[in-house]
Amino acid sequence: LSHELRTPLATIEGYLEGIRDGVIPADAQTWAVLETESRRLRRLVDDLQKVSRAEERQLDLRIRPVSPASIAAAAMQAAEPAYAAKDVELTETVDARLPQVAADPDRIGEVLANLLDNALRHTPPRGRVEISAERLGDDVDIGVADSGEGIPPEHVGRIFERFYRVDAGRTRDRGGSGIGLAIARALVEAHGGRIRAESDGDGRGARFVVTLPIAPRRQAEPAP
Fold first, then answer.
1. What residues contact 182, with CB distance under 8 A and at least 6 apart?
2. Tens digit of each residue's pLDDT (9 = 90 or more) over 69-93
3. Which of 50, 63, 69, 107 qualifies as a cystine partner to 94, CB 3.0-4.6 A?
4. Is 141 helix (H, G, I), strand (E, B) or coil?
5. What are the backbone dihedrals phi and psi of residue 134, each rounded to the nearest 5 degrees, phi first?
6. What is the DSSP string of 100-111?
7. Any alpha helices (H) in the chain, and if so which ranges?
8. What is the pLDDT of residue 176?
């Protein structure tokens, strides 16, 4: 955490010192840099609060029976503009006849949005990302598969850890706060579900699978 905070703070301090000493002009470009780094700090603080609350089961979950197809469709609709801008194909193959799952659609929507953003970040132009779902016993698996960079086998089991990056040298400009997948795991587990990652290795794409319990026939009760 100290490492993640240090980088934007050092940039802000350096620019402020330069402005004070008159070696950096207080122009529009300088203010833009300061605003960008301030937003990065705010995003980090917000994400830390969210993952901590999720892991400690302090989230206000409104769990109810919801269709996997509707969750997938909403996530796809929200992501389509970013995918079109990068020229990455986004498809969805979710059977509308799948049983409903017990979930807070807004929170699971956050999970899928995170997974779709992650897939887009690691998939080159003219690549492909697919949302799918299938029933397995008393659960439904919702998957997000991409044709992108892939994940080396030694990293697959650790990518849900806070601040863990497959490429330690990758800049933060390409990604978020570094805890997006930790938030996704915490949100899914707060639903009594599971999340996992699969990949055949470098350059062979990756697949993230969210497993949620099927909703009972009676109306689902809100989580405590």
1. 51, 160, 161, 162
2. 999 999 999 999 999 999 999 999 9
3. 69
4. strand
5. -155, 155
6. PEEE-HHHHHHH
7. 2-21, 28-55, 68-86, 105-121, 153-156, 180-190
8. 56
